Structures are given as structure tokens and as C-alpha cells.
């Protein structure tokens, strides 16, 4: 990978396209959700390290100056090691994950929300895609 390829990757240019789908957007605590991560290769070949999903608890709050802030904490993570497999232009890859929702999570509502995020670890800026979910 040349100097300019590294620079473009650092700002997301030429990175793969990623999508995530879930089988349900409202999930009971203690239940599971099926997530599918789809990736399409871009104009340059990239060695993939891992693909996966994370679930984040997002809490809104105001700082001491009254500015709206968000705190994002990961509550679940699952990855597939890809060992440097090369993703070429136009290649399409799919991975399926089953996420077990912790039974002790705070329910969605008020200042608390949740996101499920599909990601791909590649050189440069790692692409990710978020989907809002509701925990009940």
C-alpha cells in the first residue's frame, strides 16, 4: 500500500461499504438478536483483520456548562478473526452473529438508548454501520 493509499484510508476514502441488518429492533432483556454484517469491497484491496458486532448503551447528559453530551459504553462484542483475508474491489462478504442481550441491562427510554454496530477491521479508518435497537 502506497503513501497516498494510507492517507486516503485514514480519512475513509476507498474503504469498504458496510451494512448491518437485525432480525428484530425491539428485544427483551435476556433474549438474543440475530445480526448480519454485509461488506462490499471498494476500489482498493484491503487485508481484513476481523469483522464483528458490538452493542452500545448510549446515555445523554448535560455537562457542567449545560452542553448536551453522550456517553457510549460497549455492553456486548462478538468478532470473527479473518486472518488478513484480502477483500478485493466488488467482493461481497457476509457474516452472521447472534448477540445475547444481558438480562441486567437498563431498559431503553428517557436518556438511555442502544445501538448495534457492525464493523470491519481493515487498514485505515475502520468502517462501521449503526442500527438503533430498543431494549425492553
Explain what the structure shows.
The structure is a single chain. By secondary structure, the protein is mostly beta strands. The protein is built from one helix and eight strands. The strands form two sheets. Strands 2-8-7-4-5 form a five-stranded mixed beta sheet, with no helix packed on it. β7 and β8 form a beta hairpin. The longest helix is centred in the N-terminal third of the chain and has 8 residues. It is globular, with a radius of gyration of 17 Å. The N terminus is likely disordered.
Relevant terms:
136 residues, mainly beta, 5-stranded mixed sheet, 3-stranded antiparallel sheet, 1 helix, 6% helix, 60% strand, globular, disordered N terminus
Q: How does the overall form come out from the CA principal axes?
A: globular
**What is the mean predicted local confidence, pLDDT?**
90
Structural class: mainly beta
How many alpha or pi helices? 1
Helical content class: under 10%
Query: Which strand order spans the largest sheet, edge to edge or round the barrel?
Result: 2-8-7-4-5
What's the count of strands? 8
* Main sheet makeup: 5 strands, mixed
What portion of residues belong to β-strands? over 45%
Report the end-to-end length measured between terminal Cα atoms: 46 Å
Radius of gyration: 17 Å
What order do the helices and strands follow? HEEEEEEEE
Low-confidence stretches: 1-12
Amino acid at each position: 500500500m502506497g503513501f497516498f493509499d494510507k492517507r486516503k484510508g485514514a480519512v475513509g476514502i476507498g474503504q469498504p461499504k458496510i451494512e448491518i441488518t437485525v432480525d428484530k429492533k425491539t428485544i427483551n432483556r435476556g433474549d438474543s438478536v440475530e445480526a448480519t454484517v454485509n461488506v462490499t469491497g471498494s476500489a482498493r484491496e484491503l487485508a481484513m483483520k476481523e469483522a464483528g458486532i458490538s452493542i452500545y448503551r448510549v446515555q445523554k447528559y448535560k455537562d457542567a456548562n449545560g452542553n448536551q453530551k453522550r456517553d457510549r459504553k460497549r455492553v456486548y462484542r462478538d468478532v470473527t478473526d479473518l486472518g488478513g483475508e484480502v477483500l478485493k474491489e466488488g467482493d461481497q462478504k457476509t457474516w452472521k452473529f447472534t448477540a445475547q442481550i444481558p438480562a441486567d441491562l437498563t431498559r431503553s427510554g428517557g436518556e438511555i438508548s442502544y445501538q448495534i454496530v457492525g464493523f470491519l477491521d481493515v487498514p485505515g479508518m475502520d468502517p462501521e454501520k449503526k442500527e438503533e435497537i430498543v431494549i425492553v
